[in-house]
Amino acid sequence: MLKPLEYLSLIQRRLWLIKVMGFFPRLTWLGMQLARPLYVDHETSLNRTLRYGMMTLGAGKLPPEEITTYVMGFNAMRRNFKQAMNARKDGVPLVWVQWILSSEIIAAFGARALNAELLNVFGNVVSAATPSELIAEAESIGVPVEYCSALKLSIGAYVLGQTPEPDLIVRASQPCDTSISSYQIMEYLTGAPAFTFDAPYWKDGPSFEYYEQVMWDFIAFMEHHLGRQIDWDRLREIITRVNEFNFYLHEVTEMMRARPSPCSMITLLMQWVMREITIGDPEITASAREVYKIVKDRFEKGVGVVKKEKIRVIWWNPPFAFFTYVFKWMEHEFGAVVVNDFIGQCQMPQIDTSSNETMVRDLAKSHLYLAMGRQCHGPVEYITDELKRALESFNADCLIFAGHNGCQHGWAVGRIFKDICKKAKIPALILNADIMDQRHMPEKEIKREITEFFRSTGLA
Amino acid sequence: MMKTLETVRQLAVTTQNEYLASAKASGRRIMGYFCAYIPEEIIHAAGCVPYRMRAVQSPNTTLGDTWFSSINCTFVRHIFDKALRHEFDFLDGIVFSNGCDHLRRVYDNWRYAGLSNPFLHMFVTPHVINDSAVRQYRHECLAFKESLERHLGIVISEQALQDSIRWYNRKRTLLKEIYELRKSKAIPIKGSELLAVMLSITAMPVENAVEILERLLSETTGRDVSSRGDIRVFLAAGHMEEIDHLELLEGCGAVIAGDNLCMGLRHFDGLVGDGDDALASIADRYLRHISCPRMINDFQRRLDHVKQVCKDYAIEAVILEKMKFCDLWGGEAFIWRNEFKKTGFPILVLERELHGGSTGQIRTRVQAFFEQVRNRQVHDEFVQAAGKNYRLK
After folding, report:
1. CA of A348 vs chain B CAs: smallest distance (Å)
2. B72 to chain A: nearest residue by CA?
3. Across the interface, which of B124, B139, B334 has its CB nearest the CB of A185?
4. Quick check: B133 and B144 in contact, CB under 8 A?
5. Closest Cβ opposite residue B335 in set A173, A185, A411
6. Burial class (CB in 10 A: 0-12, 13-18, 19+), A233
7. Contact across the interface for B124 and A201, Cβ inside 8 Å
8. A363 at the B interface (CB within 8 A)?
9. What single-letter DSSP state applies at residue B97?
10. Cα separation of A305 and A219, whole Å?
11. Under an 8 A CB cutoff, do B325 and A176 touch?
12. Which of B11, B261, B42 is nearest to B163 (CA)?
């Protein structure tokens, strides 16, 4: 029988351990290098609650200077989890935020935001089987099996008491039907008032205007339910940090066009995940600043993230949450560097902080450029144009498409993706997997498929 | 069977019909559309005939499957299959919808496949019901109207819109009258017959539809299709066009007395107001009528609605059907099942493929469900008869 918030407590303790490790990045790096045989290959009862963290920290393949940036981000996340767990005790409202949204406004109201889907990624800290168990729990109470596993997992986590009770829910009408449907279930189960960010289909003037109105409606919703006014100065402060963060990530994204690439995509991905959870935290902006400095230094020296870059990979669709190490594994085994992807590449517009109105206007617009939302709220061109640009501008040798089992609208345009790769004469590996549930395709199978792909196409 | 019902039965199972041919011959264009959230009035005011897209007569999804995947619903796979077989070439345009993930990708694949319909338009409906969304829907109506005007080289006047509104309101009023006949103990029209009516009147000019409905209303008055022992059922689902499927339910002892279907209540619920701004009135009706589960902030109203209909129409059981891989109705099923469990009201959730057969399995499930409902009724009668002497063993 699970204790309430048992998983979150364990994750928080592991993040504390990482904080300690962060004081000694070189020693951490060396320790993880030496201990590789004990955890890299597979999970055991001895390495269970440590393996995922070490693998995500690169398993000794991430340079020590980058470990420091990860640790800064994890520190911010640990604070967020702790604050969410203590929200009720502290008498501070807790707002669940769908991961495809950003929580600047919530922070400006003095409420605490919790990414309701965080166990999709961090559930792996508990054990490799945990995400699948949470998914199975949701299915056992009647949640449709064909739902995207990410949302099933979130419902399962709530039902098992592993997510703190929300006072309010903030959700979006994108990126997919599972989101639309599952957040109705969450509202039904929790009984918490919910606000919906209704995403327009297009990115044009009238659509941005509508979304701006939605943002104002959201502020009114928060005022109504929290009985307080938004702190505009606090919002400005948060947005200033977010602008700075976005600038760094944008620059790093651009520098990765260089051959050899000065950065690996996993670093940007982790930065993005951390940003989504801890929006506006000064430490997460500091972390991005450090990444930027490190990558810029390599870029100016013409140094790559790996000694000998052999293959440049575009990774499409979100990465495997349970196997974040795949990026470092490809670098280590094949000199294959993921230079662009679906989530980590930053395309956020800057927000004008000169007035309250410009902040709301630009914040609304920027929400339509958040990873995944940017691509999924409209026609297929919002995905394919980005893919074509990535294939052309990043000198890609191949594409790995991490097919996600529950992504119905993604699979509905699979033929168009294949045609694009064919026309670009880029070999593509389409993995029939599930990014959250490794029962569909476990680590070993992913490695085998990628190895076969590199070999059969002559890339390795 | 009555003459009008025989006519509509024949019309319902074909892709095209003589009404469409005659409209086309008289110079009217036929515009396909996909969803109950697309305003027919605007298409009509442009001098065109709105045609609700359907997959009837589709033998399989062989071609459709080369574009869509096996985790996409069979409605879009059948539709696209038919499109690739050029069975929709008679349409002068198609209005797509962001009704669901499967449907919105039809728009993408249609364009990418280069299918030959000259006018393709994506009509975007908000996913919420509130004042901002109604204003946005009105804007969408205006964009759609202007798009039609540009394509057809015409001007759609306010008067034309008001005239169209009157036609469609007349159609809705007649449908409501027919549906409300099912409140009585003697149900004058079967669910399968009504589905045939809906299929036929959404594939012809509204003027003809009104004529058919008027005839039908007079013909059905005083009729009784229910038998003793039939279970009065409320049916909820998304797109449904398989008349034989409803006949199967009826063959198991169901008499469908209420529904929330795309081709049912959602097609005619609520009238368009007669305000000066026709598009605003249209927006208000289309966004605020009884919703489908794509409307994210409205599940409580849908629940309240089904509960009210159960009272008003003496419903004895609810059947909620979802097509395989329909997340929206899957989530709705979860909520309804949990809600009805609280009061013990019988509900059956069925999963099916469009034109997918599996009749044996479905029949067994429905029969078993009805047996449970009847047993429960017997039990309840026994408890009532026993009064305060009844004791649980």
Report:
1. 24
2. A408
3. B334
4. no
5. A185
6. exposed
7. yes
8. no
9. E
10. 43
11. no
12. B42
Give the tokens for residue B254. Answer: 């169901």
User: Looking at the partner chain, which of A142, A180, A419 has a beta carbon nearest the beta carbon of B328?
Assistant: A180
Closest partner CB to A408 (pick from B122, B136, B325): B325
3-state class percentages of chain A: helix first, strand second, coil last, to nearest 5: 60, 10, 35
Q: What is the pLDDT along chain B (393 residues), one digit of tens a residue?
A: 578 999 999 999 999 999 999 999 999 999 999 999 999 999 999 999 999 999 999 999 999 999 999 999 999 999 999 999 999 999 999 999 999 999 999 999 999 999 988 999 999 999 999 999 999 999 999 999 999 999 999 999 999 999 999 999 999 999 999 999 999 999 999 999 999 999 999 999 999 999 999 999 999 988 999 888 899 999 999 999 999 999 999 999 999 999 999 999 999 999 999 999 999 999 999 999 999 999 999 999 999 999 999 999 999 999 999 999 999 999 999 999 999 999 999 999 999 999 998 899 999 999 999 999 999 888 777 777 777 665 654
Joined together, the tokens standing for residue B167 give: 């036609």
Are B331 and A184 within 8 A, CB to CB? yes
Instruction: State how far residue A206 is from chain B, nearest Cα, in angstroms.
Output: 8
Residue to test with chain A: of B327, B335, B336, B348, most A Cβ within 10 A: B327
Q: Which residues contact B259 (CB under 8 A, 6 or more apart)?
A: B191, B234, B235, B236, B237, B265
Say whether B327 and A413 touch across the interface (CB within 8 A).
no
Which residues in chain B are closer than 8 Å to A413, comparing Cβ atoms?
105, 108-109, 112
* CA–CA dist A246, A249 (Å, integer): 5
Residues 6+ apart with CB under 8 A from B360: none
* CB-neighbour burial class of residue B314 (10 A; exposed 0-12, middle 13-18, buried 19+): middle
Name every chain B residue with its beta carbon within 8 A of the beta carbon of A143.
334
d(CA B369, nearest CA chain A) in Å:
18
Q: Tell me which chain B residues have a C-beta less than 8 angstroms from the C-beta of A176.
A: 101, 327
Q: Do B68 and A173 touch (CB under 8 A)?
A: no
A263 CB-contact burial (10 Å; exposed 0-12 / middle 13-18 / buried 19+): buried
Task: Give A136's DSSP letter.
Answer: H
Do residues A81 and A291 touch, judged by C-beta distance below 8 A? no
- The arrangement of strands across the sheet holding B48-52 comes to B48-52, B29-33, B93-97, B119-123
Neighbours of B151 (CB within 10 A): 16
Tokens of B103: 């449907």
Q: Measured between beta carbons, which residues in chain A are less than 8 angstroms from residue B333?
A: 142, 144
Give the E-state strand segments of A274-372 in sequence order. 311-316, 336-341
pTM, entire model: 0.96
CB contact under 8 A, A181 and B328: yes
A73 class by beta-carbon count within 10 Å (0-12 exposed, 13-18 middle, 19+ buried): buried
Nearest-angstrom CA–CA distance, A335 and A328: 9
Question: What is the C-alpha to C-alpha distance for residues B36 and A237, in angstroms, rounded to an integer?
Answer: 45
First to last CA, chain A: 48
CB atoms within 10 A of CB B70: 11
Contact B128 A200 (CB under 8 A): no
What b/e sequence results for B161-183 when a residue is b if at least 16 CB atoms lie within 10 Å of its CB, and e otherwise?
A: bbebbebbbbbbebbeebbebbe
Structure tokens at B26: 């008289």
**Yes or no, beta carbons of A181 and B104 under 8 Å apart:** no
DSSP state, residue A396: -
**Residue A460's CB: how many other CB atoms inside 10 A?**
17
Contact (CB<8Å) A144/B98? no
User: Do the chains contact at B297 and A196, CB–CB below 8 Å?
Assistant: yes
Q: What is the ipTM of this complex?
A: 0.95
